[in-house]
Amino acid sequence: YFFMKLLAFTDVHDNQSLINEVIKKANSKKIDFLICLGDLTIFGDNLEKILKRFNQLNSKTILVHGNHEDFVDMKNVCKKFKNIVYLHENVYEIDNYIFVGFGGGWFNRESPEFERLFNKLEKKVKDKKIILLTQPPPAKTKIDHMEYFGHVGNKTIRNFITKFKPILAASGHLHENFGKIDRIGKTILINPGPLGRIIEV
User: Fold this and answer.
1) Which residue has the higher pLDDT, 96 or 113?
2) Coil, strand or helix: which one is 173?
3) Which residues in the chain belong to E strands, given as ranges?
4) Contacts for 80-83 with beta carbons within 8 Å, 24 or more apart?
5) Three-class SS of residue 64?
6) pTM for the complete prediction?
7) How many CB atoms lie within 10 A of CB 165?
8) For 41-83, what is each residue's pLDDT tens digit?
């Protein structure tokens, strides 16, 4: 078994100086994977240009789309780059780890299409260390709370965490919660923010 070093980030919204910062970190920190939790763009603009830059890194990029990207567009653009793994409603396995991804979501409190994956995953994730990557945060945590609206997170994602007990659940979407960390049981929850955060798992 080996340990992995991830650089996770979210919601850069085509801000070049933030993207430069993430790329600089990725190059200097010798990471295994760059992780993007969605909203790379402002409504899909410059998507290919941004992904092209990530494709040139020494490490693979694993990503889900945000509410600013169309999942079909994202899927098609990602196919052009061999160093980029599009994870929406999918899994990526390496050694004893399995990444599970679910993107988009706006403020949907429940996601039946993600729930349908649960049964399929049952056998796949057995004895694996699960890393869950989502754009929306799980419900009723520090990372889904908004000052005037209370908890706005996704119950299906929380159910996934309770059932499968991933070692890490990283999500973005809520700018107010950039940098916040919480737990559900033993699962570490994090919103890494746009400048990126190194996570060792």
Assistant:
1) 96
2) coil
3) 5-9, 33-36, 60-63, 84-86, 90-94, 97-102, 129-134, 145-146, 150-151, 168-171, 181-184, 187-190, 197-200
4) 80/48, 80/51, 81/51, 81/52, 81/54, 81/55, 82/55, 83/54, 83/55, 83/56, 83/57
5) coil
6) 0.94
7) 15
8) 998 899 999 999 999 999 999 999 998 888 899 999 999 999 9
